[in-house]
Amino acid sequence: MEPLYQQTHKQVHEIQSCMGRLETADKQSVHIVENEIQASIDQIFSRLERLEILSSKEPPNKRQNAKLRVDQLKYDVQHLQTALRNFQHRRHAREQQERQREELLSRTFTTNGTQKKILDIANMLGLSNTVMRLIEKRAFQDKYFMIETRSDHVAQNGLELLSSRDPPASAS
Question: How many CB atoms lie within 10 A of CB 29?
C-alpha cells in the first residue's frame, strides 16, 4: 500500500504544479494541459479505489491511519477537480466575452435614415439652405466623431471611458 500511496501523493503534487502552469499557458496549449490534468485526475481516482481496498486489508492498528490518508488524498483530488472545472468555466466565459467584444467592434453603425428625417423636418419648417447645410455638416462631423471614438476604444482596449463631464477635444 505504501508505494502506491507515495506514487499517488506525488502525482497529486504534480497536478498542483500543472494547475499553476495552466494559468500561464497560451491559448493553443491550454487545452493540452487541461487534458493532461484531467487524465491524471482520472488515473488518481482509479488508484484511490485500489488504495481503499488495500487500506481495508491493513492490520487493525494501522487501518484507521491508512483510511485517513486515503480520505485526505480523495479530498485533495476532488479539490483539484473542482479547481480545474472553475478554470475551464472562467476560460469559457472569457472566450465568450472576447467573441462578443469582437462582434460588437465589427459592427458598422449607421444613421438609419435619421439624417434624411432631420432634413425633411427642416425643409418642412422652412429653414434656409444655409441652416440645412450646417445640419448636414454637423451630421458628418458626428459620424466622424463616432468612428474616431470607436477606433479610440479599440486602441485603448479596456481603459476607462471619458466621463461626460470631460468630453474629448474633438467633440467641441
Answer: 13
CA 146 to chain centre: 28
Question: 28 is written with which cell numbers?
Answer: 493553443
DSSP for 44-55, written as a single string: HHHHHHHHHHHH
Distance CA 101, CA 98 (A): 5
Q: Which three cell numbers stand for residue 133?
A: 447645410
Going by C-alpha positions, the residue among 24, 33, 31, 16 that lies closest to residue 77 is 16
Whole-model pTM? 0.57
Question: Which stretch of DSSP H or E encloses residue 64?
Answer: helix 60-106
pLDDT at 88 over 80: yes
Tell me how far apart the alpha carbons of residues 72 and 91 are, in angstroms, rounded to a whole number.
29
pLDDT in tens, 1-43: 788 888 888 888 888 888 888 878 787 888 888 888 899 999 9
pLDDT in tens, 97-154: 999 988 888 877 666 677 677 777 777 887 777 877 887 788 777 766 656 555 555 4
Termini Cα distance of the chain:
78
